[in-house]
Amino acid sequence: MYFYRGEMCPSYIEPQNLTSVSEFFLMGLSDDPELQPLLFGLFLSMYLVTVLGNLLIILAVSSDSHLHIPMYFLLSNLSLADIGFTSTTVPKMIMDIQTQSRVISYVGCLTQMSFFMLFGCLDSLLLAVMAYDRFVAICHPLHYLIIMNPRLCGLLVLASFLISLLVSQMHNSIVLQLTYFKDVEISHFFCDPSQLLNLACSDTFINNIVMYFVGAISGFLPISGIFFSYYKIVSSILRVPSTGGRYKAFSTCGSHLSVVCLFYGTGLGVYLSSAVSLSPRKDAVASVVYTVVTPMLNPFIYSLRNRDIKRAMWRLFSKTI
């Protein structure tokens, strides 16, 4: 990998103008020295809340035999993916704030990008699998445990992980094909794949096609599956004669629907804001919402809206005390 010492990407670059790239510089969220202690405390506390909240979900589900059903098995895997998703970016950002260093090695950047895509795609696919689980539970309640048997649940989670791994490696292969960059400063607080492509001087036409294909796998297909599942769910609920029956049926997927709206709503908001905004730093700040805030809020959404999780957590606390 090479860095071109110039402002534009010319059609031909003299070898003496190329410098080997061994590291990148992350722009971060702010250059204000007075804000650094505040940012450090804020993101450290948010990260600890995220990890502890999702760990509580996993421990509550694993320790309570009443929660050993497909819905909560998938929820515990989503919590695990959320921990991985946040741990990919936030600890590095906290360390950079503390050490006042924004350097990340080339290998470290590729590794961070790979895990970011892995857990981000896994989050998206697990939400689609959970939507299918709610569809089976509401539209085929008598056959729910037969259809959503442990073997199928395990295969769906495994398939989600393998597809996510494929997506992350495809992103890695795209970046590895880039020969030189016009800059080594990434306008973000982590190694965002789109930012690296924007810095590339190589012909990115084929790479962009692959990126759109990967985006279709990790974004369009899960969203389509979620929309189809909820279309069937709403159609089934509307056929229930009593208002109480409708509310009871819809309340079983209220938490999942809240998480879906939060995950995709914030992601879409960041994408639209980046398309309109001309400030890279504002885009980085907006990205905090779906990379940090969303994984932190998921445990609260499921614990506050779900009586079974509340009971399991209370039993877990009682055993611990």
Automatic annotation (TrEMBL):
<feature type="transmembrane region" description="Helical">
    <location>
        <begin position="284"/>
        <end position="304"/>
    </location>
</feature>
<keyword id="KW-0812">Transmembrane</keyword>
<keyword id="KW-0807">Transducer</keyword>
<dbReference type="GO" id="GO:0004930">
    <property type="term" value="F:G protein-coupled receptor activity"/>
</dbReference>
<keyword id="KW-0472">Membrane</keyword>
<dbReference type="InterPro" id="IPR017452">
    <property type="entry name" value="GPCR_Rhodpsn_7TM"/>
</dbReference>
<protein>
    <recommendedName>
        <fullName>Olfactory receptor</fullName>
    </recommendedName>
</protein>
<dbReference type="Pfam" id="PF13853">
    <property type="entry name" value="7tm_4"/>
</dbReference>
<keyword id="KW-0297">G-protein coupled receptor</keyword>
<dbReference type="GO" id="GO:0005886">
    <property type="term" value="C:plasma membrane"/>
</dbReference>
<keyword id="KW-0552">Olfaction</keyword>
<feature type="transmembrane region" description="Helical">
    <location>
        <begin position="103"/>
        <end position="132"/>
    </location>
</feature>
<feature type="transmembrane region" description="Helical">
    <location>
        <begin position="152"/>
        <end position="171"/>
    </location>
</feature>
<keyword id="KW-0675">Receptor</keyword>
<keyword id="KW-1003">Cell membrane</keyword>
<keyword id="KW-1133">Transmembrane helix</keyword>
<feature type="transmembrane region" description="Helical">
    <location>
        <begin position="209"/>
        <end position="231"/>
    </location>
</feature>
<comment type="similarity">
    <text>Belongs to the G-protein coupled receptor 1 family.</text>
</comment>
<keyword id="KW-0716">Sensory transduction</keyword>
<comment type="function">
    <text>Putative odorant or sperm cell receptor.</text>
</comment>
<dbReference type="InterPro" id="IPR000276">
    <property type="entry name" value="GPCR_Rhodpsn"/>
</dbReference>
<dbReference type="GO" id="GO:0007165">
    <property type="term" value="P:signal transduction"/>
</dbReference>
<feature type="transmembrane region" description="Helical">
    <location>
        <begin position="72"/>
        <end position="91"/>
    </location>
</feature>
<dbReference type="GO" id="GO:0004984">
    <property type="term" value="F:olfactory receptor activity"/>
</dbReference>
<feature type="domain" description="G-protein coupled receptors family 1 profile">
    <location>
        <begin position="53"/>
        <end position="302"/>
    </location>
</feature>
<feature type="transmembrane region" description="Helical">
    <location>
        <begin position="38"/>
        <end position="60"/>
    </location>
</feature>
<feature type="transmembrane region" description="Helical">
    <location>
        <begin position="252"/>
        <end position="272"/>
    </location>
</feature>
<dbReference type="InterPro" id="IPR000725">
    <property type="entry name" value="Olfact_rcpt"/>
</dbReference>
